[in-house]
Amino acid sequence: MAITYRNLKLGALLLFFMISSVLSVFAGNFILKYEQAVTDSYGNEIGYRTSSITNISQLPAGSPWRNYLNLKLDSGKTIYEYASSISKNLNKDFTLTISDRDSNSYSCKTKSGYNVNLYTYVNNYASDASKTFLFLHEFGHTTMLNSYPPSYDFNDLDYGSDGVHYLDEILPNYNTAWVEGWANAFGAYNNRGKVFSIDINSVSSLSFLSSNTFEQMTRNELFVSKAVYDFMKRIPGGQASVYDAFAKSGPHKSLYEFCNAYVKLYPANKAAVAQILVECSQGKATLDDILMYVNGGSRTVSRDLYNYLTGAGLIKTSGGNQIASNNNTTTANTQKQSFFGRIFNWFAGLFGSKEGGSGAASAIGSVVNSVLAPSGTSVGQTAGGVTDYKIPLDGNLAVKGSVGQGSGSVSAAAPNVDANLSSADYDDYPALQELYYGYFAEYNKMMLDGNGDKARINTVREKMIAVKNKLKELEKGR
Prior knowledge:
This protein is an alpha+beta fold. 41% of the residues lie in helices and 12% in strands. Helix 5 (174-189) crosses helix 7 (221-234). The radius of gyration is 24 Å and the shape is globular.
């Protein structure tokens, strides 16, 4: 067919609209604002003045924000460099406001873009890990807003009567645990596995939940954090596949919804996801729980999943219980992306240098049947036919779990604890938070030991709760 001027013109217009469509997804600018305290001649604060700055050197000499913005993340970039570079890949402008005001840090979305607001107390943490985590946690919320459809906002969040959340709490609903858990996982992944000063590289970080049910665990933000963090760290190609599923299938309102969406896109990873959930639950997840989270509740499972569930003791193996179906080969999902799914291209490139290979696409393509090694490191990949097995109805060795909507706030508690204690006399918010994390870590370690002194366990937990109550008092007054 002869190429005419009209054909060329139509082709050029089509190319223009295609490029415009892609650019509209990635059109963000980085805006840095500084809210500076204004003082009178006696040094008393009388107000605040906000100005836009384009360079750290424009901050006042001696400002702690100079040091804060120069703190390095896992990628090797400073907070300032990271925020400046990654903003170009957002679909809206990103405004980071650093303030001398004493208030609670937060993130939000407006018509003009995404906003993260950090306040002066973040400079008072003793550890750099806590300082950098606060920024990464809030930016984790931004990634959710950027990847989910434009109509999405942080709706249906419930932090209980006090309106705040802490790592040891069972939140009133799954959605809140998912939103905070995702932000924690994103932060920890780029913060050497640290949620503030809590290292979540080991499942022992969840020992404080050992007295809770699996259903309650899934309403705890640190449990959600640890599960998603492990998906990214321990499953081959996990970072890229998690980001892909996050962008393609959102919004999600729970870890349960995300797991179901993830394994639909990456069915070869069902056994790996199942293993992570069982390990994080410290054995509390039942067969029915796992089948709901990774297999849509169906009792027809792949060979790899069947083998894992059997090895984990969740399935009885006796003659006549296995019913094989047709062999089939499982591959990564390659369905056409939606408009918002294209945001994955941004997501997968966030920290692409962390995983070997030739980028996100190759990482996703390599996600095949893999079950995790007990040590927590991923093992080699296997491919080939997958035989389905039917799990008999009597295969569940534990009490049936629930994935229904939770209700009410429940403490992640050691037995016989009276949490109604007088608060410690502290007024330094960051120091008080670090004291809370210190007691939390000590309590967690004692719960890991299992047979420790119950009186001592209760005493440590009471101190943790007393400090937390004081923190809540301070937050109400800010």
